[in-house]
């Protein structure tokens, strides 16, 4: 028996068996955890959507309650960036203190990967009520500030999206290039490419939502 264990066939067979067992256990654990993972992902998305309404710092339980309170319609909740590229646009109708707000998700590319955001628009369809941005891998302290800096996100509040002809004018620019503070926001310092990505994302997104917001 000792000689059998020393053979290549035994070693290979034993290794293959262990790989199969480990793969089975990983698949089982992944399957068992998936329902909770899906719940956590959905909860995080709700927190991001609420952040666009300037509602932050809530516990998980309070998040669920607040979301139900202010989000009037979220039929497109499960739509993602792939749906967005395919032309299936998500819209969240909201009621904040008796005032109608509309949240639209936008998607784009930063320096190192995907970026996205949720933008809340006032009932006039042209004034930003709040904004939240996120990313997959922007540089900490630089491009990652689009998510980490609440002060930077708050710069979008009150900005106009369209001009009188319906052209998208909301933009992110270097401070030296900002000419119209009604619709232009200072870029994140030291993160030009990420800031440009946000600007392009907003132009692309609000062009897609133009008909809806200006109806």
Explain the overall architecture.
The chain has 215 residues and is an alpha+beta fold. It has a domain of 143 residues. 44% of the residues lie in helices and 19% in strands. It contains eight helices and seven strands, in the order H-H-H-E-H-E-E-E-E-H-H-E-E-H-H. The strands form two sheets. A five-stranded antiparallel sheet has the order 1-2-3-4-5. A two-stranded parallel ribbon has the order 6-7. Helix 2 packs across helix 3. It is elongated and about 80 Å long. The N and C termini lie far apart (81 Å). The mean pLDDT is 92.
Q: Which whole number gives the mean pLDDT?
A: 92
What is the strand tally? 7
- Strand pairing plus helix content: what structural class? alpha+beta
Report the sheet with the most strands, covering strand number, pairing sense and barrel closure: 5 strands, antiparallel
User: How much helix, percentage-wise, in residues?
Assistant: 40-55%
Radius of gyration: 23 Å
Assembly category: single chain
Largest sheet: spatial strand order? 1-2-3-4-5
**What is the beta-strand fraction?**
15-25%
**Uncertain stretches:** none
Helix-strand sequence: HHHEHEEEEHHEEHH
Per the principal axes of the C-alpha atoms, what is the gross shape? elongated
N- to C-terminal distance: 81 Å
